[in-house]
Amino acid sequence: VQLQASGGGLVQAGGSLRLSCAASGRTFRSYGMGWFRQAPGKEREFVASINWSGSNTYYADSVKGRFTISRDNAKNTVHLQMNSLKPEDTAVYYCAAARSYSGSDSVGEYDYWGQGTQVTVSS
């Protein structure tokens, strides 16, 4: 699976962005998908994930109620709708795919990673 993230940019606090992750391969629908982020000088952290059918989603406490993850298996895409953005959301955002998805927030669960897209939120 190859993953291509897009949709990042510069936005003011309180604004919104929608990230997209396009996946190659006909087995996309069998993977759990996740979004992670990494700010300068910090470790990569879990943001949100979704199971193969979209029936189960998980969020980090820091984004719960503001971010929404979704997927379209017909188009091999995963989205992260980010509302009410805060300066602390500034990071490079990565999408990832897990063959054996359990809903864990662990980086180690994911087998494939996209290249990342920069999100910058100004105060």
Task: Summarize the SSE layout with pairings.
Blueprint: E1 3-6, E2 9-12, E3 17-23, E4 32-38, E5 45-50, E6 57-59, E7 67-72, E8 77-82, E9 91-98, E10 112-113, E11 117-122
Parallel strand pairs: 2-11
Antiparallel strand pairs: 1-3, 3-8, 4-5, 4-9, 5-6, 7-8, 9-10, 9-11
Strand content: over 45%
Shape descriptor reads globular
- What is the averaged pLDDT score? 96
Give the ordered list of helices and strands.
EEEEEEEEEEE
**Main structural class:** mainly beta
Radius of gyration: 13 Å
Largest sheet: 7 strands, mixed
Distance between the termini: 37 Å
Which parts are unreliable, with pLDDT below 50 for 5 consecutive residues or more? Answer: none
The tally of helices reads 0
Relative helix content:
under 10%
Number of strands: 11
